[in-house]
Design brief:
6-stranded antiparallel beta sheet, 18% strand, 7-stranded antiparallel beta sheet, alpha+beta, Cyt_c_assembly, single chain
Length: 866
């Protein structure tokens, strides 16, 4: 039965949220119009506050309604049907919430509500102009989920649309207008990962935080307060830099754990769309620091803060307009919002750029000249390098946009994305890393001292020499292990080591001086470690699953796949690098049972999410299920148990790479499992498995007439027939009182272990049925064919098939932990900087880049930096 109440309530809440945002934006604008900063019209201000509070309540109501639809499995609504299913746990239902475009817009709106409520309390004199911008952005964002049709005009896409309204041509509506599907299509398999529960909220919070400094910058231009906006904007920029940066790396780690392209960054256009604004955001942070410290680069700060938010809007257009449909597997399809997205982007671009141009000459500039011995110059150079790196990625990523625009005006374009995007981007971004590493080390050293040729030489000599010695040692080790090191890699290695050592020397110096630690120094060490981790793990990944068998696995595979994978027959060891590797079977995830459960212990039922235990399921001494118990399973993924053993040390570890057959997503979906060591990871994923959706090719049945205690040879394995017993606990038969079910009891001796096999013989309503039992490890299937009660003889049929196998790829990724630990240090550095600034007021003061350092005199020499 249709439940339209919750959908109507949700849709009404969206309309209320849109109207309230409109009223709030206009009221705050009128409260600040024509008045100096801090002087507001009290009546309009009260109305603006009230309207935004109504907007906040309405947004919460929308969220509650949408999650209620998903959690309640209300598949009469298209959003729940297309993103959820009956068997998802609650934490994946949360992922369903933002899998769709409407849900992700709603998540973004929610974070803006939270930030707006904070600003209403904390922004003081800035409230009216800042919240006018804030509410204006909410107006546009809320319109994206409005779902209102006015004649030929559609405004937004509603998450509360009914399935019958979204897909009106289905024949079922003619016979049953109130039809509700029994189950949904489910959450994308690749999103069923814990990182997808926390990564999108983190990323969208980072997006939302870029609005705050943007709003302060626009308010500063609007009110003619060209300098006072910097201090409050600085704190929010720090928060944005930290959270958006962590969100980007969270996405990289999700890709590393979930996707099987062998890494964490594939330069996909959707990845780039997030990476670009983060680079510009970090550059804008350094611009703000320069103004606070030495009154330079204020114009640059305005430009970069505004550009960061506009790039967020541009990223939204890229990923949600459908323009990347053929260029990225991660982009959303077009829901008809392209026009709205363009209007959204154009409105704020025109508003901010026009305001910036009109006020440009009034923005203060420095009368000082910067020389080589000014730390400010190198901070400015570093920010420039970040922007150049962002522009390079932006230019290439936007090629589909150029083509779409030229096609729109009638010009045919042959522009195409680079064939090898990883090589293309890496070629340029590697040198950006060199520039960032060098500038971060040099500027941090210079920041804390008075600089001239002598003092700078004395300070830099030790870290420079140690960096060169460290680089030389690494180069020798790389060559010793048979690898070559390109010039670009050598330069990046040397500069990254210099950045680590230079920043570390200053942090240690501050400790000795009993000065508060520099958050900037710690963050720069983190960035340098990230660069070293990227260099080692991406530049020197080692494929250890080389095909040394001389076999061509399949003519359907390309040459690389045939060369870089190892074929593993079930229970047969194969050499792979320094390991002997053995594939030992297929496993399922059983909720409530630690680890995974062997598929051979489970009898599948008509309900694919339920199975019966064929034997006791234990972990140690704890019994989870007894033989014959019904249990729930998660059947989407099959986990393949792969055992690694070091040939020298005999140490073992086990990995469970997973895979599933999903024809809608191109066939086999494989996710890796990773063994983590201190200095490297072993990254393993399935490349191919026997066709899961096809019947196995069994041999002709060979019959055996046996007495209890007989021994036979089955497919080269010894089998003992131990007797016949009632099949009381047998799965899936649905036995009635008058039915007869017996099962044979065989003990088969495999290479590594013994197997109990129980083929069944059933008599129901004078009809005979047979339920064979299969030993996948050995490629055997036994059927109970007949019973001779007079002679106590039993007839069994035996079929054999090719043994189970997998084709596995394994890659050794050296020092990848430097990337993850560097991310944590970077976040810690941002956090330290925020902690130091927590008590700052709006009073003028001098501060340091991203760190909150003490004021110190500078050595001005004339060169203007805007």
């Amino acid at each position: 039965m249709l439940n339209t109440f919750i959908g109507n309530a949700g849709h009404l809440s969206v309309i209320v949220a849109f109207v309230a945002a409109t009223v709030a934006a206009y009221s705050y604008y009128m409260a600040a119009r024509g008045r100096a900063l801090g002087d507001t019209d009290a009546a309009w201000l009260r109305l603006g506050r009230g309207a935004f509070l109504v907007h906040a309540v309405a947004v919460i109501s929308v969220i509650v309604c949408l999650f209620g639809i998903i959690h309640g499995h209300r598949y009469e609504y298209y959003y729940a049907w297309s993103h959820s299913s009956n068997h998802l746990p609650v934490y994946y239902m949360i992922s369903c919430f933002w899998e769709g475009q409407e849900g992700s817009f709603l998540l973004w709106i929610f974070w803006h509500v939270c930030l707006g409520l904070i600003l209403m309390r904390a922004s003081k004199r800035w409230e009216a102009p800042v919240m006018a911008i804030f509410a204006g952005v909410q107006l546009f964002l809320t319109s994206m989920i409005l779902g209102v049709v006015l004649g030929e005009l559609k405004i937004g896409s509603s998450p509360f649309i009914l399935l019958r309204d979204f897909m009106p041509d289905l024949p079922v509506w003619k016979t049953n207008p109130n039809f509700v599907p029994a189950d949904g299509t489910g959450l994308n398999a690749l999103l069923q990962n814990y990182w997808m529960v926390i990564h999108p909220p983190t990323l969208f919070l980072g997006f939302a935080l870029t609005l705050v400094p943007f709003a302060y910058a626009i308010a500063g231009l609007w009110k003619g307060e060209y300098t006072k906006w910097v201090r409050p904007a600085m704190r929010w920029t720090l928060w944005g830099g930290m959270i958006l940066g962590v969100g980007v790396v969270m996405g990289a780690y999700w890709a590393y754990e979930t996707l099987n392209f062998g890494g964490y960054w594939n330069w996909d256009p959707v990845e780039n769309a997030v990476y670009i604004p983060w680079l510009v955001l970090v550059a804008s942070l350094h611009g703000l620091v320069l103004w606070q410290r030495s009154r330079t680069a204020l114009r640059t700060s305005f430009v970069l803060v505004i550009a960061t938010f506009l790039l967020i809007l541009y990223a939204t257009f890229l990923t949600r307009s459908g323009v990347l449909g053929n260029a990225s597997v991660h982009s959303f399809t077009d829901l008809g919002l392209s026009g709205q997205l363009i209007i959204y982007l154009a409105f704020f671009a025109v508003l901010s750029i026009a305001l910036l141009i009109s006020r440009w000459k009034k923005i203060p500039i420095s009368e000082k000249e910067l020389t080589t011995y000014n730390a400010e110059l190198w901070v400015f150079v570093g920010a420039t390098v970040l922007c150049l790196g962002a522009f390079q990625v932006l230019f290439t990523t936007s090629i589909p946009v150029y083509n779409a625009f030229l096609g729109f005006i009638g010009i045919k374009s042959n522009l195409a994305l680079p064939a090898d995007q990883i090589a293309h981007y890496t070629k340029f971004q590697l040198w950006m890393g060199v520039g960032v590493a060098f500038c971060s080390g040099l500027a941090q050293v210079m920041w804390w001292q008075k600089n001239d040729k002598s003092s700078l030489t004395n300070t830099l000599t030790v870290p420079a020499i140690l960096a060169l010695l460290g680089a030389a040692l690494v180069i020798l080790l790389v060559q010793y292990y048979g690898h070559k090191m390109e010039l670009a890699y050598i330069v990046l290695l040397t500069t990254a080591l210099f950045a680590v050592l230079a920043n570390l020397s200053m942090v240690l110096t501050l400790i000795r001086r009993k000065v508060s630690l520099s958050g900037g120094g710690v963050a720069h060490i983190g960035i340098a470690l990230m660069l070293l981790g990227v260099l080692a793990s991406a530049g020197y990944s080692n494929i250890i699953s080389q095909n040394v068998s001389g076999l061509l696995y399949s003519r359907e595979f390309d040459q690389t796949t045939n060369q870089d994978n190892v074929l593993l027959w079930r229970n047969d060891a194969a050499p792979m690098g320094k390991y002997d590797v053995r594939y030992t079977g297929q496993f399922f995830d059983v909720p409530g049972v630690p680890g995974y459960v062997d598929k051979q212990l489970l009898f599948r039922t008509a309900d694919e999410y339920k199975a019966l235990a064929r034997a006791d399921i234990k972990r140690g001494d704890e019994l989870y299920y007894k033989a014959g118990d019904t249990l729930e399973i998660l059947p989407e993924n099959t986990y393949y148990r792969v055992e690694y053993q070091d040939r020298k040390t005999k140490e073992k570890f086990v990995l469970y790479p997973r895979a599933q057959v999903n024809e809608q997503m191109g066939g086999l979906l494989a996710s890796p499992d990773i063994k983590k060591f201190a200095d490297h990871d072993i990254y393993s994923h399935i490349s191919a498995v026997p066709p899961i959706d096809k019947e196995k090719d069994w041999s002709e049945v060979q019959e055996y007439v046996l007495s209890v205690g007989d021994t036979i040879v089955l497919n080269d394995y010894i089998a003992v027939f131990r007797g016949v017993e009632p099949a009381h606990q047998t799965a899936g038969l649905g036995l009635n009182k008058d039915d007869l079910a017996i099962q044979g009891d065989f003990l088969v001796y495999g290479e590594k272990k013994q197997y109990h096999v129980h083929p069944m013989f059933v008599v129901r309503n004078r009809l005979i049925g047979r339920v064979p039992d299969e030993v996948e490890d050995l490629g055997l299937r036994l059927s109970f064919l007949n019973v001779d009660t007079q002679q106590s003889k039993f007839t069994f049929g035996v079929s054999t098939t090719q043994k189970d196998y997998i084709i596995l790829k394994a890659v050794e990724k050296p020092f990848i932990n430097l990337l993850w630990s560097g991310t944590l240090l970077m976040a810690l550095g941002f956090g330290m900087a925020l902690y130091k600034r927590r008590r700052e007021t709006e009073a003028p003061a001098v501060a340091a880049p991203a760190t909150g350092v003490r004021p110190r005199p500078v050595q001005p020499k004339p060169r203007q930096v805007a």
